[in-house]
Amino acid sequence: MTPAPTAGPPPPIPDLNFSAELRLLLERADGKAMTMEQIEESLPESTTYGMLMLFFSIPFSLPVSIPGISTPFGLAIMAIGVCLLAGVHPRLPRRAKRVTIEYERLKRIVAKGTWFAVKLERLLKRGRLGILIESRFAKRFVGAMIVSSGFFLGLPFPVPFTNTIPAYSLIFLAIGWMEGDGMLILLGYIIGVAAWAYLIVLWLTGNAVFTSLWTRMFG
């Protein structure tokens, strides 16, 4: 008697627009939690890593810090950026692949991501500012900014907006990368630079306050 063949993972979701891919991914979850490895295998190859960047970034798109997950999510995003910077196919670290997304959280991420998609799909134009996305140098530069924003996102600062600003940078970079729209890439760069400017302002302000208090207390 011939043993029945072992069922492998289902084929990837068709390469559609961003919002449609998100809805199909939620349907595939069918009310169950999914690991990042399962999500990675479910997404079309052309958009896999942009979508994963969104999954790691969207939970931080509110002006509050989320303790416990910013560092591993930031490291996973940095790994994708380092691969792009090195010119190799992006790969998630094993630890990131084992991260499980509960269905309720997955549903919230998909809802927020779909909201972004619906807003941005009206503005998207493939091939716009192609110089920012098509050349080898441009892809390396995108990778460098992803590493920068991922590092910032991973910093465990309990300060409002320290996760939010780099998260929006990554969201624009991811959607611009997937959809081939250099204008969104440019917005991602601007927001990424603004994130570091915000951190510098915080540091300078904190340093000035500390110095003033020290002078008043100890002369």
Folded structure, characterized:
With 219 residues, this protein is mainly alpha-helical. The chain has one domain. Helix content is 64%, strand content 2%. The protein contains 9 helices and 2 strands, in the order αβααααβαααα. It has helices spanning 18-29, 36-42, 48-57, 70-86, 94-97, 103-121, 136-154, 164-179, 182-218, and strands at residues 34-35, 100-101. A two-stranded antiparallel ribbon has the order 1-2. Helix 1 (18-29) runs antiparallel to helix 6, helix 3 (48-57) packs antiparallel against helix 8 (164-179) and helix 4 (70-86) packs antiparallel against helix 7. The longest helix has 37 residues, at 182-218.
